[in-house]
Specification:
Length: about 150
Amino acid sequence: MRFQTSQHLQSHRAKSDDERILPLVNVVFLLLIFFMLAGQLAASDPFEIAPPQSSSEGSAGTQDLLVLIGVDGRLALDGEMLSEADFRTAVAERLSNGEAPSIRLKADGGAEATQVVAVMELLRAAGVERLTLLTLPQPGSSAGTPTDGESG
């Protein structure tokens, strides 16, 4: 009986190293496909924003800070939702770390203009020297990517 078990195991052993590693390769590829389908490459905004449209064309370059203003007045700085007081504190902390960075302002098209202007003035008072207002191109314009309207 013992002899039969040994022969049985030897007959099911892989014949080469390639055959033994093949199940591992299959599992790794399945995990890779799963993470490609389920993962995100970039952080999404904490709330939905529909930027206003603009006829100006320009590129949205890489900037240091991203400020979001929601239709209901919610504020976010670099993907983190903040109250107005926390927003002021966070901006002051970020700007106190050295040179004044450029800021991209992404406001919802339905947001109150007075609140957008108030946030812009708050940023200017905090020492921001370059502010970019992100907008979408108007339908029918040649640009297909978000544009920026700069304020200095």
